[in-house]
Every structure is written in C-alpha cells, then in structure tokens.
UniProtKB/TrEMBL annotation, chain A:
InterPro entries: Fe-S_cluster_assembly_SufBD, SUF_FeS_clus_asmbl_SufBD_core, SUF_FeS_clus_asmbl_SufBD_sf. One of its GO terms (biological process) is iron-sulfur cluster assembly. Pfam families: SUFBD_core. This is SufBD protein. It comes from Allosphingosinicella deserti. Residues 120-334 form the SUF system FeS cluster assembly SufBD core domain.
TrEMBL record, chain B:
It comes from the Bacteria. This is Fe-S cluster assembly protein SufB. One of its GO terms (biological process) is iron-sulfur cluster assembly. Residues 154-210 form the SUF system FeS cluster assembly SufBD N-terminal domain. Signal peptide: none annotated. The lineage of its organism: Bacteria, Pseudomonadati, Pseudomonadota, Alphaproteobacteria, Sphingomonadales. It holds the Pfam family SUFBD_core. Belongs to the iron-sulfur cluster assembly SufBD family. Residues 219-461 form the SUF system FeS cluster assembly SufBD core domain.
Automatic annotation (TrEMBL), chain C:
Keywords: ATP-binding, Nucleotide-binding. Belongs to the ABC transporter superfamily. Ycf16 family. The gene is sufC. Transmembrane segments: none annotated. The lineage of its organism: Bacteria, Pseudomonadati, Pseudomonadota, Alphaproteobacteria, Sphingomonadales. The keyword Nucleotide-binding applies. Residues 2-247 form the ABC transporter domain. It comes from the Bacteria. PROSITE patterns: ABC_TRANSPORTER_2 (PS50893). GO terms for molecular function: ATP binding; ATP hydrolysis activity. This is Fe-S cluster assembly ATPase SufC. InterPro entries: AAA+_ATPase (IPR003593), ABC_transporter-like_ATP-bd (IPR003439), FeS-cluster_ATPase_SufC (IPR010230), P-loop_NTPase (IPR027417). Pfam families: ABC_tran.
Length: 366, 490, 247
C-alpha cells in the first residue's frame, strides 16, 4: 500500500507512537464477520442512526434522518493518517432554526482490514447536537472529522472504542465560534491500539472547549493522544481532562497543549492529566504543554503519575472491602473523572458501564 | 591586528552603553587561525601541549561533528551560524602563571571589577583580611589565567585546576571521567566542544572531604568572534561536598558570539555537589542585534548511593539560551534538584529546563522553574522526568511558574513525563500569571517607584529559587533581575 | 493640608464623584460616612493615585502642591498613606523587606538618608509590638495567608513605620472583631493624633468612631458631600440611617 508513508518517532507529534502494525493490517482482506450484537443505546430522545461496516453504510440497518451521505466537502489536510480518508462519508449540517434532533448514533465496524472515512459536522447559529460514535471489530478504522460550530452552537461528541484488536485512528479538526461550546469525550476501552489527533480552534470570542477521556490499556496495547486547543480570541475557556490506566506491558501517552494566541486575553485554560500504573511493566507518558502569547490569562495544568493511593486502599480494607474489590473501586472512580463530563445520562451510564466492564475483566489478572 | 580589533570593540561598546558589562579589555590576544578544520583542532591541542590521546579524542569528536546536523530548533529562531567565520581560540598572549592575585595583570583585575564580581569576592580578589574564602578560577576567554587559594585547597586534597593543566597533571583521572557523563557524540554542540574546547576547570574532591571554600569560576567572553568552548569536570568522591559558583558576563559585540560549554558532574556514594550559575551575558540590544548564543550541555551523574546534585541557575543574559542542566539519578537514594529563574526581555529567546532520569531505587527529584518574560521575548521551560522500570519508589515534584510582563512576549511550558514503574509518584504543576494592577498600586502607594515595585514583585516570584543561591550570589542575582527588566514596564 | 475642590471622577467613563469639596487641616480627624456605592472607596483611590480612576474636573492640593499631578509613589513620599480595605498579597516578598524598600524609597525621594538595617529592625519591632503583631509575621510574605484582621493590623504597622502626614483609611474597621477594633483604633490615635498630622477615616459604621473620635463627620452620597457636622452626626446616622440624611 503505497499510501502508507507513516511518520516516525523522530517527529515530535509521533514521539510515543507505534504504527508498525498498520501496513500489515492494510494489506488484509476484510472477513465480513459481524459482531453478535450492535450496542445501540436506548435513550430518551432517539435520533438518526448510521451503521458503517468496513467504511460502507449498511442502509437497512441505518436511519440517516438529517445526516447526508456522499461526498464530504472540505480539503483532506496534511496530517499523516487523516489524509488517507478520501471523500465519501457522512455530513451532519443543522441550520440555526433546526428542531432538536435527538441522539445521533454512529456505529463503525471493522472486519479485519483497513477502512477510512471522512465526516463533516456543521452547526449553524445556536444549533445543538449530541452524537455518540461506537467502534467495534478487529481491523484498522481510520477517521477524519471536520467540525464547525457557529455562534452559540453546542456539540457534544462522545466516542467509545470497543474494537477488540487492530487499530483505531481518529483525527478531528474543530473550529468553535463565538460563545459556542464543544465537548469531546473519548473512552478507549477495547483491545485495539488507538491514536487520537485533535486540533480545536476557539476562533470566536468566549468559545468553550472541553476535550478529554479515559484511556484503558492492557497486554501490549498502546493508546496515544495528541491534542491542541488553540485560543485565538479573548474570553475563551478550555478544559482537558485525561485519565490513563496502564496494566501489563501497555503504554498510555497523552500530549495535550493549550495555545493562547497574541491578544487572546482573559483566556482560562486548564489541563489535568493523570496516569495510573497497574503493573510493573506498564508505561505512562504525559506532556501537558502550555504555549502562551498573552499576559492576562489563567492557565494551569497539573499532571500526576503513580499507583493507587495506599492510604485509600488501606482505608477501604479497614472497612472490610477485599483488596481486589478496593482496587477496582478506586480505579473506577479515577476513570470516572474523565467520563462524568458527558451530559446525557443514558450516554454517560453506558460509557461508565463499558469502563467498568474493562476494569472487571482485568480484575481476575491482578 | 588585535589593537585594531580592540579599538573597534571599544567604539562599539561606547555606542551602546546601556549594557553595564559592555566593555573590552586591552589585553593582547593571540588567536587561532579563523575557521574550523582539523588544523584548528591540532593548533589548539598543540598550544596546550596536550598528550597524543587528547588530540586523538578531539579529532574523533571533530570527525563525528562533521557528520552531525544542527538541532531542529523547537520554538526558537536561530539564524544560521557560520562556523568558519569564527575564531576558536584566543588567549592572552603571555602565558600567565601566578603565585598570587597581586601579580595579576591590572587590566584583568579591572575587568573583574567591571564584571561586577560580587563585593565579597572582590574583597577576596583584593586580598582583604577576613574575607570569606572563595577560590576563583577565572576563565578569560579561553585560557584559565589564575587560580587562587590553590595551596589551601591542596592541603585539603582538593584538586582545582584549569582543565588544560589537569590533562597534563592528572591524565588518568581525566581519561576516566571526561566524556563519561556527556558522551563525545551527545549532541551537536557538545561534540563541537569536545573537538575544540579551549579551557575550563577540573575539580576533584577526595573521599570524605568537605571542600573548605566555595569554588568559583568567572567566564568572560572578551575577544570578538571567538566561540567560547569551556569544559568543566567536577568529580566528588565518596562522602565529599562541594559548592561551585559560575558567573558569566560578556562585553558587548555587534556580532553574535557562540558559547558552547560542556559541564560534567560526577557524584559518588554520599557525595553532594551544589552548582550555581548566574548568567548575564550580553543579550543583544532592544532590537535583538548582537548578543551571545548560549548553547550549553550540563549534566550530572549521581552514580553513588545517596549522592546529590543540585543545579541552581539565574539566567538573564544571552540572545539565545539553550540549556538543560540534567541529572542521571543512577544511585540508589540519589537526589537531583533543579532551581531555575530565566528572565527574558526585548528579543531574547530562552529555552531551558532539565532532565531528571531516574534509574536508581528511591531516587528523588525536585524541579522549580520560574520563567519571567518581558518585551518581545520568548521563554520556554522544557523538561523531562523519566522513571526507568527498575527504579522503585521514585518521587518527583515539578513546579513551573510563568510570569508575563506585557502582551507582546511569550511563555511556554513543555514538560515530558515518562514513567515505567508503578511505584513512582510524579507530580507536575504549572501556572501562568502577570503582575496584577493591585499589587503594583499597593507597592507604589507605599512609596516604591514603578520599576522598584516591579523588581520587588519579580524577586518575590523568584524567591524560591533565589534562596537556593549562596548569599552574595543571591544579592547580585536580585539586582540583576531588576536591571534586566528596566524599561520593560510602562 | 488637604484641599479638595469640586472633584469629579469616573471609572470606565461612569461618573462616581460629582463635585466633592473637602478641607482637612493639620491636627484634624475627619470621618467620611455614607451608604454603599456613594463613592467612598473611589475617593480613597483617587487621592491615592490609582490607575483607572480618571479625574474629569476639579483640583486637589496637598500641602499646597497639586496632588493629582503626582504618581502614587510620589504621593507616598510626600507623606500620604492609603490604608486599603483589601490589603494586597505579594507572594515571596517579606513584610520587612517590603517596608524597608518602601521607607528608604520615600526617604531618598525626600532627600533624606536611608535608614540602616539595624535602626529599621528596631523601628519595625517597636511598631509591631505596639500593635500586637509578632516579628515572625513581619518576616512572612506581605499579607499572604493573613486573616482579614491580621491584614488590617499589618496596615497599621505599615502606617506606624512609614509615619505619614495624612492617612486615608478605607474601611479599616471592616472585618475586625471587637478586640482587634480596639487595637487598630488605639493604633490610629497613637500614630496619627498629633498636631502636625491628619486623618481621613472612610467608614460605613460608627463603631470605630467611638475609639477614634472624629473632629468632623461628613456624609457622602451619590458622589458629593451632602452634610457635614461634628462627632454627633455619626450618632445621628447610626440612629436614623443614611436614608433620612442623604435624601
């Protein structure tokens, strides 16, 4: 596959990445093997549903509603994986007077090979949407999503990666307009390696962005997130909350940057990157970066890496809770920090259940 | 030739008198031929009567350097450097061997005075009775011209020599340690230094000895167009202690001058090295013209159990600073510390920080970085905390604070955290702030001028670091922060 | 000593003071009282020289000199002291260092010699003792981690050390319990009740005036002095409220 000119670790943005498995996956043929069950969420306000298998829409399992299928407008861009996505994908465009849509659900299934898909989300003035994307299967799923939020628009995008093996790479290019709000929450709770590339521009006055999630890794898994929130206008607010858990020989890496452009005064940017190591051979990498060109700003970050608090473990034990259970309990609350940002209760509950299922699966090993 | 050069430098210095340390001494200089080649390397080695092995080492480094590429500058704008358009060696023409400081060339003495060497140490230089003892090894351009208190140090068994002398007198020790902490091929500038280093300092503290005085070196770049390639090696044997002070100034020049030093520290079991730097090299004028390029490799190997190295730096000078005093914490229970104040004004660029590489069990590190940006400058903290898989119970605490003065400067924090052991506890915090109107008005309503108020608040911001410095150094550093900010608020 | 003539001032173009007249002579203590939002704190800041408070009309002289023409630090050197309602924290700078720098800056500006470290230490110990503040607190960073009462006490210590001619004390009594109020009030009397000094007490309540008895009381409302009188006016205000008098 000649398209695959992959970046090396010498490049700063790919410092902690391992893309060596991709050429092999890209050379495979899809098996067509579908999962037994598609985890559509039951929710109070159902909306459009899309099912993509190996990057192709399965029309009889989908109800696109307001989502358009076909050529996605917008240039592909230059980033290493995002440029592979081609032009056929899905588009959600909501006008300013649009009635609430209900929860948009997209399921991506990979049956063993590589597939690439672009998406476009554009919310006009004061429009609102909430989207959940779920990733399943065992190949390489590669996505590029371009998002534009006009004045006062609000988007809540929640993603859960339940892909059993293989690779999931998701790139996002987001422009947030005046007073608009963008919240992206990601849960990496499957067995696949992942790479998240996010670039969020707060392009209007008083924009809000929150990008975070939980990365759960075991075996030889690697999760790798690289995010930039760029404050281009005054009065913006951003939050980056990431929780990483690494067991066995796994590695979780988060590089998150807040940029404050010249003149973007009264910016309030906050980062919290925390890592939890569950085994002696696991690795956590973190790079909480600030790049500031304005003086009247409030930017702070905190990063911690360690194991579970021994005092807390002892406290739970002294109240009669068995060590394994205590460990699971504390790990769950550590992870929940990053997931509890999700607004809809149905979605939040589903994500917490997924995270707990991952943790329970690991409980036997520890 | 050198007369013309000096006259020109004088004129330049007079023109831009805003730099308090901008002056050139009228001492005859001897230069290596301009440019860099194997011949330059041989010339330098020959001038110093070096043994064959040392020349071979230099040539190996030079050949390695030819294959290397200059680093990719992260956030900095570095004009290309023409390595052929510089002198790599400049020495006062007469080789000076002094028994005491009184014999020192009065011109050099005046230079020290103009350098603003701390008052206490001026007393030491002047031989005032009762002055606290500080041994000074002055590196005047490339050759170490004087060391004081050699006798007293000798009594304690401390070796404090220029590195050229040490190569001749203690070849086994130099061969054992030189390039051990910063390998010859470590990075572009360290490799260049390995090939052409002209002089520097060697310190050895024997087992169980607490060095009876603070050791001090003043670096000074005097000649035009001479790269300064210092080499410092400090070995603290088991259970020993030494505090080493390094102050740097450079006269004003129109052209940028390259400074690429290498400092290697080795601490064996239970040894402690405290290394303090105040750097106020010429930063260039307010438009960014001139100024020193300060590309320095400083690294400590805490090899022994419970060994400790503490780096403290106050960086206010240089047009471009690129330095990361680091600690390889190999010994069980070893401790690394990094306390830094970096102040940039006008068009200065500073990219500084530290690497704490934890390999030993129970090793601990503390990082406190205070960045102050003013004018149109850029100030970056770049650091790495790495915990190896066998390093149990590692602790690190990092605090990075940035203070911005004005809305045309930049402050950046780029910390890397890489942890491979679950028993580690790593904490990193960073904040960004400015001087509040409230603070400024409060101080002014008590009678302080705006500039004094700013200097006071900035000193308060930097206090945690300044208090790590030896007393008289701290006083100098406080003044320096005030001076460096003059005219930046208004 | 202080003469304010038809003073108008704005914050961000919003008029706050609208033609205020006031004369303070040496040896006098004046209290300025008034409801919230009347412009009391603005008056303090305008006299102190804070940026953002723009004088649009009127004049203020201090010992015959144009006060409004001076920077905040020059006003301090001329002998004016502003006691803050919310004293500011300055991390990393000790109280002693701060005050010594300030005192010597003022002395230099007046052409006096700087005070030696020993003399300064004696002076600050005496002032701290008189206000029941430990030297330990004097060595802590300016106001950092101080309680509200400690901050106000610290303002009085500063006043004692800087020894001004005119003190403008903005709500110095707020946040003080009854004992602290006594200490602060006694401090004001001790330091400032002298024939060559004067005080402008800006306050909302009458209780401080029981300890520091004013010679004159002025009621400030809507940016102007609407009524002046003796100490008995404060009692009347306490009894009847501002509504009746300011109306």
């Amino acid at each position: 596959m000649s398209l695959l000119e992959l970046p090396s670790n010498r490049e700063e943005r790919w410092r902690w990445s391992d893309l060596s498995a991709l050429p092999e996956i890209a050379a495979r043929a899809p098996s067509g093997q579908m999962p037994e069950r598609l985890p559509w969420l039951d929710c109070a306000t159902p909306g459009p549903r899309l099912l993509f298998v190996d990057g192709r829409l399965v029309a009889d399992a989908s109800e696109p509603g307001d989502v358009a299928l076909g050529t996605v407008e917008a240039p592909v861009g230059e980033d290493a994986l995002g440029r592979l996505v081609g032009s056929e994908g899905w588009t959600l465009r909501l006008g300013s007077g649009h009635a609430p849509l209900g929860l948009v659900q997209v399921i991506h299934v990979s049956t063993g090979a590589a597939d690439h898909l672009p998406a476009r989300i554009e919310l006009d003035v004061d429009a609102q949407a909430s989207i959940v994307e779920t990733f399943l299967g065992d190949g390489w799923t590669n996505r590029l999503t371009r998002i534009t939020l006009f004045k006062g628009a609000r988007l809540m995008l929640s993603r859960r990666i339940l892909t059993a093996s293989g690779y999931v790479s998701l790139s996002d290019r987001v422009a947030v307009g005046e007073g608009a709000s963008f919240v992206l929450t990601t849960l990496a709770g499957g067995g696949a390696d992942t790479r998240f590339d996010g670039e969020v521009h707060l392009a209007g006055n008083a924009g809000f962005a929150e990008v975070g999630g939980a990365l759960l890794a075991r075996g030889r898994q690697r999760h790798d997130a690289n995010l930039v929130i760029r404050h281009e206008q005054p009065n913006g607010q951003s939050r980056q909350v990431w929780r990483s858990v690494a067991d066995d020989q796994a590695t979780c890496s988060v590089a998150a940057r807040v940029e404050v452009a010249r003149g973007a005064q009264k910016t309030d940017g906050e980062q919290s990157l925390k890592g939890l190591l569950l085994s002696r051979t696991a690795t956590i990498n973190a790079k909480p970066e600030l790049e500031i060109f304005a003086d009247d700003v409030k930017c702070a970050h905190g990063a911690t890496v360690g194991e579970l608090n021994r005092d807390a473990l002892f406290y739970l034990a002294s109240r009669g809770i068995a060590p394994a259970e205590a460990k699971a309990l504390l790990t769950a609350s550590f992870v929940a920090d990053a997931i509890e940002r999700i607004g809809e209760e149905d979605v939040r509950t589903a994500f917490l259940d997924d995270a707990n299922a991952w943790l329970a699966h690991g409980g036997a090993q520890s | 030739m050198s007369d013309v050069r000096n006259r020109e430098a004088h004129d330049a210095a007079e023109k831009a008198a805003t730099y308090e340390w901008g002056f050139t001494s009228d001492i005859e200089q001897e230069f290596a031929p301009k440019g860099l080649s194997e011949d330059t390397v041989r010339f330098i080695s020959g001038k110093k009567n070096e043994p064959e092995w040392m020349l071979d080492w230099r040539l190996k480094a030079y050949r390695k350097w030819l294959e290397m590429r200059a680093p990719d500058w992260a956030k900095m704008q570095v004009p290309p450097i023409d390595y052929q358009d510089a002198y790599y060696y400049a020495a006062p023409k007469k080789k000076i061997e002094l028994a005491s400081l009184d014999e020192l060339d009065p011109e050099i003495r005046r230079t020290y005075e103009k350098l603003g060497i701390p008052i206490e140490e001026q007393k030491v230089l002047a031989g005032v009775a009762g002055a606290r003892k500080v041994a000074v090894d002055a590196v005047f351009d490339s050759v170490s011209v004087a060391t004081t208190f050699r006798e007293e140090l000798k009594k304690a068994g401390v070796i404090f020599l220029s590195i050229s002398e040490a190569i001749r007198e203690y070849p086994e020790m130099i061969r054992k340690w030189l390039g051990k902490v910063v390998p010859m091929h470590d990075n572009y500038f360290a490799t260049l230094n390995s090939a052409v280093f002209s002089d520097g300092t060697f310190v050895y503290i024997p087992e169980g000895v607490r060095c009876p005085m603070e050791l001090s070196t003043y670096f000074r770049i005097n000649a035009a167009n001479t790269g300064q390639f210092e080499r410092t090696l400090i070995v603290a044997d088991r259970g020993s202690y030494v505090s080493y002070l390094e102050g740097c100034t450079a006269p004003m020049r129109d052209e940028n001058q390259l400074h690429a030093a290498v400092v290697e520290l080795v601490a064996l079991d239970d040894a402690e090295i405290k290394y303090s730097t105040v750097q106020n090299w010429y930063p260039g004028d307010s438009e960014g013209k001139g100024g020193i390029y300060n590309f320095v490799t400083k690294r400590a190997l805490c090899q022994g159990r419970n060994s400790k190295v503490s780096w403290t730096q106050v960086e206010t000078g240089s047009a471009i600073t690129w330095k990361y005093p680091s600690c390889v914490l190999a010994g069980e229970g070893s401790v690394g510390e990094f306390y830094s104040v970096a102040l940039t004004n006008n068009r200065q660029q500073a990219d500084t920080g530290t690497k704490m590489i934890h390999l030993g069990k129970n090793s601990r590190s503390t990082i406190v970085s205070k960045g102050i940006s003013a004018g149109r400058s850029d100030n970056t903290y770049r650091g790495l905390v790495r915990v190896g898989p066998t390093a149990e119970n590692v602790r690190n605490f990092t605090q990075c604070d940035s203070l911005l003065l004005g809305d045309q400067c930049g402050a950046h924090t780029v910390p890397y955290i890489e942890v491979r052991n679950p028993t580690a506890q790593i904490e990193h915090e960073a904040t960004t702030s400015k001087i509040s109107e409230d603070q400024l008005f409060y101080a002014m309503s008590r009678g302080l001028s705006q500039e004094d108020a700013v200097a006071l608040i900035v000193n308060g911001f930097a206090r945690e670091v300044l208090k790590q410095l030896p007393m008289e150094f701290a006083v100098e550093a406080q003044k320096l922060l005030g001076i460096s900010l003059e005219g930046s608020v208004g | 000593m202080l003469k304010i003539d038809n003073l108008h001032a704005t914050i961000a173009d919003k008029p706050i003071l609208k033609g205020l007249d006031l004369s303070v002579n040496a040896g006098e203590i004046h209290a300025i009282m008034g409801p919230n939002g009347a412009g009391k704190s603005t008056l303090g800041y305008v006299l102190g020289g804070r940026a953002g408070y723009e004088v649009t009309e009127g004049a203020v002289t201090f010992d015959g000199k144009d006060l409004l023409d001076m920077g905040a630090d020059e006003r301090a050197a001329a002998g004016l002291f502003l006691g803050f309602q919310y004293p500011v924290e300055i991390p990393g700078v000790s109280n002693v260092q701060f005050l010594r720098t300030a005192l010597n800056a003022q002395r230099r500006a007046r052409g006096d010699e700087e005070m030696s470290a020993g003399d300064f230490l004696r002076l600050s110990r005496a002032q701290a003792d008189a206000l029941g503040m430990s030297m330990d607190m004097m060595k802590r960073p300016v106001n950092v981690g101080f309680s509200g009462g400690e901050k106000k006490r610290n303002e009085m210590v500063q006043m004692g050390i800087l020894d001004p001619k005119l003190a403008i004390l903005d709500e110095t009594d707020s946040g003080l319990d009854i004992d602290a109020l006594r200490v602060v009030g006694d401090g004001i009397n001790r330091i400032m009740r002298k024939p060559d000094k004067a005080v402008l007490l800006i306050t909302h309540y009458q209780r401080l005036l029981e300890i520091v008895e004013p010679d004159f009381v002025h009621v400030l409302a809507a940016g102007r002095i609407v009524r002046s009188g003796g100490a008995e006016l404060a009692l009347e205000l306490e009894r009847e409220g501002y509504g009746a008098i300011a109306a």
